[in-house]
Amino acid sequence: MKYLIISCFSLLFFQNVYAKARFVRVTFGQNPYNEASIIWDQNRGEFLGLYLDTVEPSVNRYRNVLQLSDKNSMRGMKNHIVRLKGLKPNTRYYFTIKDTEGFGRTYYFSTVSDSPNERFSFIAGGDSRDNRVVRQKADKLVAKLKAHAVLFNGDFTGIDIEKQWKEWFLDWENSIDTDGRITPLIVTRGNHEHSNKVIVALFDVPHKKVFYNTVFGGNLLNLVSLNSEIQKVGPQKIFLRNTLAEHDSYQWQIVQYHRPVRAHVASKKEMQTQYKNFVPLFEKHKNVRLCLENDSHTWKVTWPIVSSKDSDADEGFKRDDAKGIVYAGEGTWGAPLRAADDKKSWTRDAEAINQFNWIFVSKEKIELRTIKYENEAEVESLTEKNRFQMPKNIELYGPVNGTLVEIFPR
């Protein structure tokens, strides 16, 4: 195994004293086959080493000791970052953090497969804001569903202050399973994040302007993360054009960003800059079949749609099952709900509910389901081996047109 820093074999004798590392999270950047970032707040004590291995350390042995890649002070936290390189695809990695007060608990995460024949599970949503009771339920369900990654599309907190971020990370610890399993995050920026800098510092995203791509399953999927809070022209548009073209041979491309092109809440403005600069590029590539949006604090799923200036178009789009793109969202991970009072002729279903999307991706199709997470305490916990089955008591939502949205290649 190759890592940034590797020590000789170490034998550790764990004490009954625990490290003061808290808010531990894992994020994926561009290559989740062999790279990941481990981030935490060093609340007290001095960091001494991150111990990493592919074998469960039942005898307290780790073969690799890593030092910090970076650190920053953001929102009252001493954020420590270890960037892992040279990891093996589709492999479980156990780790613990040592500081001057002892060793922390054992966590683990898994890299993803680089085979296009694999199937992937994602949880997608955003707008957690400050309703802690509600968002904690969503976080707890994350721990049970064992997705490969969570796609979190912005508006983590209400006003981007220290207290709210610390509460967000404290609540996010509910997404860590009892055995220490962490579901990695892939994040975008929302309008309630006051700067790009806060997202870079807290989640170690690979681009300072918070637009980047992440690939899964060899040439199966290119996930594009955009920033709806900065200019849609210039560097971001060039990036979007280039990444979509470079991955045109992939089976799928999915795009995620915060503000919806056409919100389903009447008080929200239409994002004409995205309609003008993003949508034509999406539609140029036949493998772009799904866009994930948030911001409005409601829920919607559209039929496949294309942009149009025809007289029968509704807000610049019309339904096209053969060539269209499905747009899903719009952000209810704990934010105050708003009525879905701006439905379109091409809206499949929409309603104000607390939900996130559960998405399966394979060569054959994309499956999208809407999960009402408020009954999370009743939902059966899955494993990594059975992560594609429907757990007992899961509440799927689809009031008119069914609970399953299937998207096929064209």
Key phrases:
410 residues, alpha+beta, Immunoglobulin-like, Purple Acid Phosphatase, chain A, domain 2, seven-stranded mixed β-sheet, 14% helix, globular
Describe the structure.
By secondary structure, this protein is of the alpha+beta class. It contains 6 helices and 27 strands. The protein has 2 domains: 101 residues, Purple acid phosphatase-like, N-terminal (Immunoglobulin-like); 288 residues, 4-Layer Sandwich (Purple Acid Phosphatase, chain A, domain 2), CATH 3.60.21. Strands 12, 13, 14, 24, 25, 26 and 27 form a 7-stranded mixed β-sheet that branches. Strands 15-16-17-18-22-19-23 form a 7-stranded mixed β-sheet. Strands 4, 6, 9, 10 and 11 form a 5-stranded antiparallel β-sheet that branches. α1 runs parallel beside α2. The radius of gyration is 21 Å and the shape is globular. The relative contact order is 0.13. The N terminus is likely disordered.
What's a quick, concise take on this entry?
The protein is built from 6 helices and 27 strands. The protein is α+β, with helices and mostly antiparallel strands.
Q: How would you describe the shape?
A: globular
By DSSP (H or I, 4+ residues per run), the number of helices equals 6
Low-confidence stretches: 1-18
Could you name the CATH homologous superfamily of the largest domain?
Answer: Metallo-dependent phosphatases
Strand content: 25-35%
| Structural class assignment | alpha+beta
Mean pLDDT: 94
